[in-house]
Amino acid sequence: MKSKVNEIAISYSGSLKANLLPKITCSQSAADLAFSQWNKETIELHETFKIMLLNNANKVKGIYEASNGGITGTLVDVRILFAVLLKSLTTAVILLHNHPSGTLKPSEADKNLTEKIKKAGKLFDIKVLDHLILSPDGDYYSFADNGIL
């Protein structure tokens, strides 16, 4: 009897031309773009974790929602996060999540997750450029700007 296995298909589809993609030049430009794409109806209700996928010129290929959680936290499966990064041939990433309370101070869990993703990124030559925490009013905290990346 012959064994059978599933065939795996992997794809990425980007419809915008590279010259039309927004370029990230600093934490403020990343935060502005992330906030403009965030669902304003839920930003102060629950935490959401997203990743901003960048090409080698720091142009945004897209934003992917990796996790939706509760009032005080959300779980991120790093394997799924890297499946998306690798599938999209991303060379750099900016981590994004919101704090519904408006508090911009990163928790120990935020710092630990950032370090875990950063270490995994080194294995695949994917740079973690920043981790931004957004508040419902549009303020943000940048790990890179505050020297904890």
Side-by-side strand order of the widest sheet: 2-1-3-4-5
Q: Count every beta strand, where a strand is a DSSP E run of 2 or more residues.
A: 5
Q: How far from one another are the termini?
A: 54 Å
The parts where pLDDT drops under 50 for at least 5 residues are: none
Helix content: 10-25%
- Work out the radius of gyration: 16 Å
Mean pLDDT: 91
Main pleated-sheet profile = 5 strands, mixed
Query: How many individual helices?
Result: 3
Domain MPN: 24-149
Protein name: RadC family protein
Keywords: Hydrolase, Metal-binding, Metalloprotease, Protease, Zinc
Pfam families: RadC
Structure description:
This protein is an alpha+beta fold. 25% of the residues lie in helices and 23% in strands. The protein has three helices and five strands; from the N terminus they run αββαβαββ. It has a five-stranded mixed beta sheet with strand order 2-1-3-4-5, sandwiched between helices. The relative contact order is 0.18. Keywords: Hydrolase, Metal-binding, Metalloprotease, Protease, Zinc. It comes from Mariniflexile ostreae. This is RadC family protein.
Q: What's the gist of this structure?
A:
InterPro entries: MPN, RadC_JAB, UPF0758, UPF0758_CS. The chain is an alpha+beta fold and 149 residues long.
Topology, element by element:
Blueprint: H1 27-37, E1 48-54, E2 60-68, H2 78-87, E3 92-98, H3 108-123, E4 127-134, E5 140-142
